[in-house]
Amino acid sequence: MNSLNYYDNIAHVYDQTRWLTESVAEEVADFIINLTRAAPKTNFLEPGVGTGLNVFPLVKRGYSVTGIDVSQEMLDQFSQKFNTTPPNLNLIHADASQLPFSDNSFDVVLTVHMLHTVSDWRVFLDDIHRVLKPGGFYLNSQWITPPARKEFEGYFREFLDKYKGINTKSKGVNSAIPEINTEGYLNHKGYVSNYLIAKEWTVSNTVEELLNLFKLRPYGLCWQVSEDIFHKVLKEFEEFCIKHYGSLKTILSSEAKFEIWAYSLPLTP
């Protein structure tokens, strides 16, 4: 386990630099509860739980939640959302791609932007299958980046690309995402799949707000170069933004989505 992973460095700014707000997370939790027909004793697992943005509402409502993450700093941020850690929350500091649980342990397994980070996605899906109870649900999810923010990030990448290879940082950050055929693999195991949009919402930021977020260095692409080069890129990019958007006060608005690929294994008669 690499204790110096970049998530340790961004844990304190993670929540404020993402577009999944607490109120949206509450609505997504409602959707998940209805989808999985959760009962009071339903228990949830999120590998790569981070600061708990996705499952915090479930913990507050009394559901049993286990979270596992490679970053202790991220887990600490999650814990600090409570006065004391509630008895229905179990946080484990470990490699989230290796599930240290017995067979048939969980009713629902949730991953969010996580599958591409594991070394072997097939082995990981086999492990999820192993720890799921009969009739359980695997929810493979992602927040879709609002198009206006994605375009903004794309412009920033163009400036960053000019300095690639100059004192480059860890190759593990933001590396190429492998092709993953989750649906085909799980369908072959007998799972029934369903694509769902749990929530759509509008995200609005001024150009200045987005620039200030990038200055916190909160995303993987920000760690591809050394700190001095990063600040140089930021300065050049700010000048570009003023010219391109006309003003740092220009508001960029677009729709975000919380997508879920739900997989369930029907109980045999």
Question: Can you give keywords for this protein?
Answer:
alpha/beta; Rossmann fold; 7-stranded mixed β-sheet; 269 residues; 9 helices; 7 strands; elongated; 24% strand
Beta-sheet strand percentage?
15-25%
Oligomer: single chain
Helical amount: 25-40%
Please mark out the parts with pLDDT under 50 across 5 or more consecutive residues, or reply none. 167-175
Structural class: alpha/beta
Largest pleated sheet = 7 strands, mixed
Mean pLDDT: 92
Q: Number of helical runs? A: 9
Helix and strand run: HHEHEHEEHEHHEHHE
CATH superfamily: Vaccinia Virus protein VP39
Amino-to-carboxy terminus distance: 43 Å
Spatial arrangement of strands, main beta sheet: 3-2-1-4-5-7-6
Q: Judging by the overall fold, what is the CATH architecture?
A: 3-Layer(aba) Sandwich
Report on this model:
The chain has 269 residues and is of the alpha/beta class. It has one domain (6-264): Vaccinia Virus protein VP39 (Rossmann fold). Helix content is 35%, strand content 24%. It contains 9 helices and 7 strands, in the order ααβαβαββαβααβααβ. It has helices at residues 6-10, 22-36, 56-60, 72-79, 121-131, 147-161, 182-188, 207-215, 227-245, and strands spanning 43-47, 64-69, 89-93, 106-112, 132-144, 192-206, 251-264. A 7-stranded mixed sheet has the order 3-2-1-4-5-7-6. α5 (121-131) links the parallel β4 and β5 (132-144). α8 (207-215) packs antiparallel against α9 (227-245). It is elongated and about 60 Å long.
